[in-house]
Amino acid sequence: MILQQIRSADGTGTLTYIIGDEKTRQAAVIDPNLSDVDRIVDVVDSLGLKLTTIVDTHTHADHYTGAQVLKERTGARIIMHALAGGKWEFVHLGDAFGIGDILRANVKVAIDRFVEGGETISVGDLTVQAIHTPGHTNDHISLLVNGHLFTGDVLLVGQAGRSDLPSGNVDEQYTTLFEKIMKLPESTVIHPGHDYEGNEYTTLAAEKRSNPFLAMRSKAEYKAFVEDFFPPVADAFGNGVVLQCGTRRVFEEKEEFTNITPKELEAMMVTDKPLIIDVREPKELALFGAISGVLNIPMGSLVRGKVDLAPFKGRKVVVVCQTGGRSIEAAHYLVSKGIRNVSNLVGGTLGWIMAGKQVSRVSKE
């Protein structure tokens, strides 16, 4: 199987995939971004492929799909889940989130074939299985082919897509993750629809080890975790912020905090004695370990104003999480509340461990 990833340069963290059959040279594109259509066509041509199929894993809320333009340029058919045909009923809800215009544009795309979960899509001699994976949106599908799973926005590297946008559902997301994706072989290669940290792919085994969304918990515990994990959507607007489907968002204005490496944090701990705030959930600290001396303030408690920030003023503050996504949000929040000398640990606790640094095991209580 031919596989090519295209990372968008438009700041949305969008990942588009081209898969091709080596024998017939037929190809499919998954989640094409409108701003990347020219690049997609160039890559398809350079690989000697013929684009026959276009699949959007779901109705996108954070970027404009290039499916219609690609169809007009190549004649390829567009495929989506059957529920995509009813997305008009959710468009007006997007206005409250600032994504109404994107939804209106995306639901206008003329779909050639609607699929249900369990159906297959042929790309030459390749057989692609469509798995209905709702949660981020109700029309979401993931695509399984030759041990590779294209997860759209329902599962990302180190996190998952928001379930609080129009047609999202946290109960359905729980079922998708634990009763569908988690039951696949651990060797399954995961290709997400977005990534904000430079990752190209991951594996199900790696995500089981490090992704807090895949930590074993009851549905009630999962719902409580998700509520605390994501910053409120209402905080996603203004100050140059562009809403993303994961917790990492693109900030167009100059960031007023510093990104630091594990090596720089280690040196800072000796010379400056910073206040290190870990915004993960207590169970994550117990499961994955924590940098010695951190103050654990879960993200939800921090951004919902449950923490007195007065003691933070005048101190150097470093924010950490699991992989560096939530901590960016926390750093922006602290800066917006007048806290200065804020730093974010790039790569989070996982990056700290991968750099050979030690963590402490802490109690869940």
Keywords:
alpha/beta; 6-stranded mixed β-sheet
Q: Note the gap between the termini.
A: 48 Å
Q: Determine the number of helices (DSSP H or I, runs of at least 4 residues).
A: 12
For the biggest β-sheet, the strand order reads 1-2-3-4-5-6
Tertiary shape: elongated
Unreliable parts = 236-242
Structural class: alpha/beta
Can you walk through the features of this model?
- The structure is a single chain.
- Helices cover 28% and strands 22% of the residues.
- The protein has twelve helices and 19 strands.
- The protein has helices at residues 37-46, 67-74, 88-94, 100-107, 170-181, 204-210, 219-229, 262-271, 282-288, 299-303, 326-336, 348-354, and strands spanning 2-7, 15-20, 26-30, 50-55, 77-81, 113-115, 120-123, 126-132, 141-145, 148-152, 189-192, 202-203, 241-242, 250-251, 258-260, 275-278, 295-296, 317-320, 342-345.
- The chain has a six-stranded mixed beta sheet, with helices on one face.
- It is elongated, with a radius of gyration of 21 Å.
- The relative contact order is 0.10.
